[in-house]
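pls design
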């Protein structure tokens, strides 16, 4: 069976959103999840049970918000200094922080109001409440990026370009995706896949998945761009990319797509090919087999 037109459209939107708006380094510490007092509860949601936070009507979030902002400020200062010294991974992470917070800091005065409006419109009250909590956490974290000041678009691009020039494959793929003018050929795709496998970089794996589905980003016989893109994303999660609740990837899935109660990004990714699980599993297995062979070869 073919994936539904709606599923493909949502899958493409998901991959583009995760690739361009909330990308992050596998070395970045996963932020703690902002939860309401009383702890998480669970609700049934096909095809898996998912965890949600039940929030009372009134909460004092200021202590947690300050903690999130301070932690991000420390990271921002650390990676900024390292990036200036020429550390390529720090340059990538600095670009990622700018990318994460660009849309937040450009409209800080109205950001939380926008989140509240989206949460109120959500069809699932639990997901809407989780969206509020995630939005508040992201808002606080972005207060620690340049003290919440407006982020120039050039700042994101310049650090991405600097990291790419320094040999960071993930940033090279990010820029290729952003500037795509023609689909990848089968030869180009095979070459990039080999580089990604050799790099062992889970973020680069995810970006290759983004590139495969971006506006017809891949045109190769015997390769389904939709399935391939999802497979690279899921394989990236299995190879170390932070994909659980509280990760930056799950934050963007909630705030951009409304997927706020799933426990892991792979659940959401799999829903993008709900009627093609066998093909998706086969492609994931093929990618992971290549990763294992590369590791054995380099031992």
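designed seq:
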């Amino acid at each position: 069976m073919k994936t539904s037109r709606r599923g493909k459209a949502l899958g493409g939107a998901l991959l583009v959103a995760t690739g361009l708006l909330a990308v992050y380094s596998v070395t970045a510490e996963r932020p703690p999840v902002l939860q309401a007092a009383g702890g998480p509860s669970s609700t049934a949601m096909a095809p898996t049970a998912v965890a949600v936070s039940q929030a009372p009507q009134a909460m004092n979030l200021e202590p947690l918000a300050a903690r999130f902002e301070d932690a991000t400020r420390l990271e921002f200062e650390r990676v900024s200094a390292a990036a200036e010294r020429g550390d390529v991974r720090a340059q990538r992470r600095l670009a990622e922080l700018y990318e994460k917070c660009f849309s937040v800091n450009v409209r800080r005065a109205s950001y939380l109001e926008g989140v509240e409006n989206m949460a109120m419109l959500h069809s699932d009250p639990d997901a809407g409440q989780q969206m509020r909590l995630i939005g508040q956490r992201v808002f606080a974290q972005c207060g620690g990026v340049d003290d919440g000041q407006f982020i120039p678009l050039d700042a994101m691009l310049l650090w991405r370009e600097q990291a790419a020039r320094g040999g960071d494959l993930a940033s090279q793929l990010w820029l290729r995706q952003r500037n795509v003018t023609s689909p990848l050929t089968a030869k180009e795709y095979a070459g990039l896949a080999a580089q990604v496998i050799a790099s062992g970089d889970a973020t680069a794996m995810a970006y290759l998945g983004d590139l495969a589905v971006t506006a017809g980003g891949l045109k190769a016989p015997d390769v389904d761009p939709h399935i391939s893109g999802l497979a690279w994303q899921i394989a990236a999660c299995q190879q170390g990319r932070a994909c659980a609740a509280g990760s930056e990837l799950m934050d963007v899935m909630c705030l951009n797509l409304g997927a706020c109660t799933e426990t892991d990004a792979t659940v959401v990714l799999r829903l993008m090919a709900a009627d093609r699980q066998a093909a998706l599993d086969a492609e994931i297995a093929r990618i992971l087999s290549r990763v294992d062979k590369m590791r054995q070869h380099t031992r």
